[in-house]
Amino acid sequence: MNSDQFGQETMFCSLLPGDIVIEILLRLPVKSLSRFKSVSKPFCSLIKNPNFISKHYAKITQETLPHILIMGHHHKTLEVTLRLINSLTIHRDVITPPLHFHVPFGMTSEKTRIVGSANGLVCLNLNNHNGVAIVIWNPAIKKFKPVPKSPYVSTLGKLTITDLGFGYNPRNNDYVIVRLLNVATSRRKYEVEIYTLSTNSWRKIMSDGRVLLVIRPFWKPMAPGMIAVKGVAYWVGVEVRNEEMCGVVVSLEMNSEELKFILPPIEHHGIVVDLREAITLRLFNLNETLALIYSTNLEKVDIWMNNGFDLWVLDDKIKTWSKRFKVEPIQGFLLESGFWENSKAMVAQERKEMCYDENGDYVYTKGETNLYLYDVIKGDFEIIENHELRAPFQGYSYLESLVDVNGGVGVTKEVDLSMFLEFDPLLF
């Protein structure tokens, strides 16, 4: 990139060549660049230029490890809260305390969750007593985009459980939401809808009826459901084969909108006698590679580390699985929210203490959740101090960016969410 891309007449500074000014700006944080938009029209034009934005984010990703954005419930107020953990480093014994990450959308319920995070954009499914809204939010530039209501809702009958996924499509430099809708009138029918940020509109894809939709359990609202990796959305389904119901991974190419079905790495683990078992195939994004583990715990659809497990990764070109590593058993820890730096898993340990009054009568149970990053290869723990959250958790990689949200709404402190609550709350 050079100043010629913005016109020969562009003048940033009388003392430095334009190319030097651009190289300096590429090294500045988003907060500083946002302020520099008001310096002059050439600065504003440069900083808002898509080429500059792409190069700035590429430089950040090359020089900075991703932060971890954690969503959970505050241990006292139970309000849905976000925390940001600073970039991980190789030579460090303890992670620095997480930063409070302000969500400017008012009070939300326990069903509020992160749909996904990509290139500095965070997609949220917001839920309060008035209804539900989906927003695409760039916290760094303080803008968000309310996603409009789909015109295709309820075209096949009564809709029941749904799931959402959010990701970046590198083939056309666009951001996509994929929504899955179960149809109550038929166990084999479901709708797939796609929203693209560039068009600010939805379109529908018909399923072929081969696979029954299986998503995150409704009693685990923060359990990972759909995973987006390199412009492909993945979720778990059930296919009938030889009169047996077998778990499969369903993939949707965001660009071609083509549905495909991928067998799990160990097929007998995918045989299903109860639909809840299919949910024990859990998907994760491991450094932009689809990863899968299998859990034998069916009671709460939690993944306890007590028995250990194998983690498999998918070669997205030839659609074959290979075992990345084996996680050895550790007692009393729960796997939460995926993996980072190739081998670090976020795990939680809950401690409960029964509290009594002065007469010895039981009053309440005090709960405390310790949150760690656990290196499954080295066996090392790094405690996440003062996160003030209780399980369950969500965790997504996050780095700030200048990426725009297609004419989004600016927000500094709080926004009246009721203006954007268009979706039927029964759908979420």
Task: Lay out the secondary structure.
Elements (H helix, E strand, L loop, with lengths): L17 H8 L4 H7 L4 H7 L2 H14 L3 E8 L5 E6 L13 E3 L11 E6 L2 E8 L2 E8 L4 E4 L12 E11 L4 E10 L6 E7 L4 E6 L4 E3 L13 E3 L2 E10 L2 E10 L5 E4 L8 E2 L2 H4 L2 E5 L4 E5 L14 E7 L4 E8 L6 E7 L3 E13 L5 E14 L5 E4 L4 E10 L10 E2 L18
Antiparallel strand pairs: 1-2, 1-26, 2-3, 4-5, 5-6, 6-7, 7-27, 8-9, 9-10, 10-11, 12-14, 13-14, 14-15, 15-16, 15-17, 18-19, 19-20, 20-21, 22-23, 23-24, 24-25
Q: What characteristic shape results from the CA principal axes?
A: globular
Distance linking N and C termini: 44 Å
Low-confidence stretches: 424-428
Computed CA radius of gyration, to the nearest angstrom:
23 Å
User: Which structural category do the helix and sheet elements fall into?
Assistant: mainly beta
Provide a count of the helices: 5
* Main beta sheet: 6 strands, antiparallel
Strand content: 35-45%
Quote the average pLDDT: 77
The helix content, as a percent range, equals: under 10%
- Total strands: 27
Characterization of this structure:
This is F-box domain-containing protein. 9% of the residues lie in helices and 43% in strands. The protein is mostly beta strands and 428 residues long. The longest helix has 14 residues, at 50-63. It is globular, with a radius of gyration of 23 Å. The model is unreliable at 424-428 (pLDDT under 50).
